[in-house]
Specification:
Blueprint lengths: L1 E6 L2 E4 L4 E9 L6 E7 L6 E7 L15 E6 L4 E6 L8 E8 L17 E2 L3 E6 L1
Parallel strand pairs: 2-10
Antiparallel strand pairs: 1-3, 3-7, 4-5, 4-8, 6-7, 8-9, 8-10
């Protein structure tokens, strides 16, 4: 089993930046893809970005914010989400999730159902 823990959330003014971290522990050798999602109360979880764990290849999926950059530090078992020029509509709880399956159709990675393990989330609030 993989355990995920997010950190780095907080409150920033519009235009500010945050870097979220997702640290994996346990059976990290099972991770094929690490994804970031966000959720606003009352709405469905929304895909943000995803990265191939073994080599750090960042997938170009969806029309998510071009202001966000995903990366990972393999020796540290940590993935990052760098968020720049934040807007009030980016306010949400941000989650990281791991997928242990190889997905030939990469758009599947945009669905929360593709992921096996989830962190508890970290709150990001952007004030106007």
């Amino acid at each position: 089993q993989v355990h995920l823990a997010e950190s780095g959330g907080g409150t920033v003014p519009a235009g500010g930046s945050l870097r979220l971290s997702c640290t994996a522990s346990g059976r990290t050798d099972n991770i094929v893809t690490l994804g970031w999602f966000r959720q606003v109360l009352g709405k469905e979880r929304e895909f943000v970005s995803a990265i191939r764990w073994i080599d750090g290849f960042a997938y170009s999926l969806g029309s998510g914010p071009g202001r966000f950059t995903i990366s990972r530090d393999y020796p540290k078992n940590t993935a990052y989400l760098q968020m720049d020029n934040l807007k009030p509509e980016d306010t949400a709880i941000y989650y990281c999730a791991s997928d242990k399956e190889y997905r030939p159709v990469k758009t599947v990675l945009m669905s929360a159902t593709a992921y096996d393990e989830w962190g508890q989330g970290t709150q990001v609030t952007v004030s106007s």
